[in-house]
Amino acid sequence: MHWCHTTTFPPSLVQPLITYSHRLIAYLQIIWCFHVALLVDLIMDLIHKFLNLVAPPFTFFSLCFVLPPLLLYRSFLWVFNSIFSEDVVGKVILITGAASGIGEHLAYQYAKKGARLALVARREQLLEEVANRAGELGSPHVLMIIADVQKVDDCSRLVEETIGHFGRLDHLVNCAGIMSMSMLEEINDISSFRTVMDTNFWGSAYTTRFAIPYLRDSGGKIIVLSSSASWLPAPRLSIYNASKAALLIFFETLRVELGSDVHVLIVTPGFIESEMIQGKVLTSEGRMDVDQDMRDILVSATPIRTVSGCAKAIVNSACRGDKYLTDPAWFRMTWLWKVFCPDVLEWCYRLLQLTRPGEPAAGAPSKKVLDMTGGKKVLYPETVQTPELKKE
Ligand SMILES: NC(=O)c1ccc[n+]([C@@H]2O[C@H](COP(=O)([O-])OP(=O)(O)OC[C@H]3O[C@@H](n4cnc5c(N)ncnc54)[C@H](OP(=O)(O)O)[C@@H]3O)[C@@H](O)[C@H]2O)c1
Fold this sequence. Notes:
Blueprint: H1 11-83, E1 92-96, H2 101-112, E2 116-121, H3 124-137, E3 142-146, H4 152-166, E4 171-174, H5 194-218, E5 221-225, H6 238-258, E6 263-267, H7 275-278, E7 280-282, E8 288-290, H8 292-299, H9 307-320, E9 324-325, H10 333-340, H11 342-353, H12 365-373, H13 376-379, H14 382-385
Helix pairs in contact: 2-3, 2-9, 4-5, 5-6, 8-12, 10-11
NADP nicotinamide-adenine-dinucleotide phosphate binds near residues 100, 122, 175, 176 and 227.
């Protein structure tokens, strides 16, 4: 008697069974992967929720703990560095944008300290006047280099000429810059505004790239003119502001890369007496022009700092080895408004500097306040009250 009997499937059923079982396995795998993915998503979500809860109090209490000793250490360092400030007698300082404004006066301040200078700009005659004056003020040797920092070859040449002439480089001052002023929607040809980024950002980035090997050799310094515009969302300055914000993070990152080999000072001025603050801007037509109405809307009743005072503060700060400088110092407070109340800042800019559609820009409340009070006579240095630029 046979108790066990074997069931044999007819061959016609075997193949479909194999196919179905493969499909079933594939479906199960998909469902499994889907569940694993869901689980991973869930865990990641939980981790972020946990960090969202924990990071703010952790940061707050860490700052309470870390800030007091850090501030004390910084104050001590500031006093120490002020006493043992760098002596730049005979040192080689390369300044771009030295034909006018801040760059021109930086040349005078370094000259007074006995530094040798390489001065860069495009307008030859103006640069020559600055070079002569720097010589009179005490610079033992001034080299003039006519170059356009928008061009990478010019940036390479200006560094090589400096090294060829002096054999070393101690401070590189990236100061060349232009300002654009137009609502984005009013710009005729947006591509003509590339020149702002090319001058302000790429001009500094190219020159710095070529200068770094020589600055490493001398344990030198980079000084860069960013701006408080890097954090303030003033209307009509979107592209200028972006170029200055780009400079800020570029040089902060570079500072990490270079460590203690090359020191980086980032300068973020407020409003400083110069051709730019005289109203020389790139207009919506893509032309460099003097537009003092637009300047008045922007600056309004804010006191403009003298350029000699600002240049002196920058050179002292560079010699002291500071990492940041805002001049005038009170302008730094605007950064607190930006961090803690960005919406209030935006609202103030809209209210004060913009007009209703169809109304002329010159009707902006910020300009009306300036015109009605006559504040310009007191708050603006004489050089920026006239629309006449220095003649070549
Ligand atoms: N004034 C302020 O309130 C203020 C505030 C914050 C930041 N800044 C920054 O400070 C820097 C100096 O500006 P400033 O106020 O002194 O204005 P400025 O008087 O107009 O000086 C700008 C200088 O840059 C030079 N320059 C412009 N384009 C150049 C190019 N493509 N190649 C070489 N040189 C060039 C100009 O000379 P050439 O035209 O002869 O080339 C001039 O010497 C700028 O980077 C600006 O953004 C100024």
